[in-house]
Structures are given as structure tokens and as C-alpha cells.
Design brief:
The chain is of the alpha/beta class. It has a single domain, classed as Vaccinia Virus protein VP39 (Rossmann fold, 3-Layer(aba) Sandwich), CATH 3.40.50.150. Helix content is 24%, strand content 27%. It contains 4 helices and 7 strands, in the order ββββαβαααββ. The chain has a 7-stranded mixed beta sheet with strand order 3-2-1-4-5-7-6. Strand 6 and strand 7 form a beta hairpin. The chain is globular and about 50 Å long. It starts with a strand and ends in a 6-residue tail after the last strand.
Length: 158
């Protein structure tokens, strides 16, 4: 089962697995209303924990603990998927004279409601430094203005 953390009004396609949507906002009708800093499930529960463009809504000082909490509910053999805006991409765009809505949304959030504000930002290096203490086995991909991090939890061994 996939846990989709903070999806807002977005519905992510995961056709191969059931999805449980967790969000703090009641108005978007998630399956579970909860704060993403404290997931109300047992450890090692989900085969996939998907968090697209939510980590940047937390303070940088909270980010390590938030990732640790998300990692806690990933089942052995499962994967944590975290997508965040890429500050290096933003800087490159700005140095080329481009400061359109994609750049400003990546830097500041869309600001469509009170919680839609970015409190932190990441480069591939800063995101790697946060995941390394949890799991050195990760991959990163760049997709347009996003960093996509995939970390697989080792299988249990007897």
C-alpha cells in the first residue's frame, strides 16, 4: 500500500497499489487527517511512502525529523519517494534572466492558502545530507525543476 503524504488536491497515479492519502487539510477530503510530522501508523507499514512537494513546507530545522518519521513507516523492502523543488535549477533560471511562475512557485510556493508557503529549499547536496543518516542507499533524479529522491529500505534479515 502507498501512503501519499500531503497530496493536497493532487491525485497521484499509483495503479498497481491502493493509496492512502494523508493531509492536514480537511477541505481536500484525505483518507486520514493528520500532521505529516507525526504519522498515525505503526512502523514498517507501507510499501511506498510518497511525499511530493511537501518537505519544503517545513522549516529546515525540522526536515531531518520529518524525513525520519516518514522513513519509520516504510516497510522493509519498501521505498521512500521525496520530491522537492531544486534550488540549483531556480538559480540557473534566474542567472539566465528567467523568473517566471515556475521559478517563483519553486522558491516560494503558490501561496494559494495559508499553508502553501515554502519555508526551506533544497539542492541535490542538501537533500542528500538529510537522507544519508537514514539510508545511504538512495538514488536521485532531476526532473525539470524538481529533485526526485528514491530511498529503498533494506529487507529484514533473520
Amino acid at each position: 500500500m502507498t501512503l501519499d503524504i500531503g497530496p493536497g488536491r493532487n491525485y497521484q497515479p499509483h495503479p498497481d497499489k491502493p493509496i492512502l492519502r494523508l493531509d492536514k487539510r480537511i477541505d481536500i477530503h484525505p483518507c486520514v487527517v493528520a500532521d505529516a510530522r507525526s504519522i498515525p501508523f505503526r512502523s514498517n507499514t507501507f510499501s511506498t511512502v510518497y511525499a511530493s512537494h511537501i518537505l519544503e513546507h517545513f522549516r529546515m530545522s525540522e526536515a531531518g525529523d520529518v524525513l525520519k518519521e516518514w522513513w519509520r513507516v516504510v516497510a522493509p523492502g519498501g521505498e521512500l519517494q521525496v520530491f522537492v523543488p531544486n534550488l540549483e535549477w531556480c538559480a540557473e533560471q534566474i542567472t539566465h534572466g528567467i523568473c517566471d511562475e515556475f521559478v517563483t512557485n519553486a522558491l516560494f510556493g503558490r501561496q494559494e492558502y495559508d499553508l502553501d508557503v515554502h519555508r526551506s529549499g533544497y539542492t541535490p547536496h542538501t537533500l542528500a545530507m538529510l537522507i544519508l543518516p537514514l539510508n545511504p542507499d538512495y538514488t536521485m533524479k532531476m526532473f525539470r525543476n524538481s529533485i526526485c529522491l528514491y530511498a529503498r529500505k533494506p529487507e529484514w534479515r533473520n
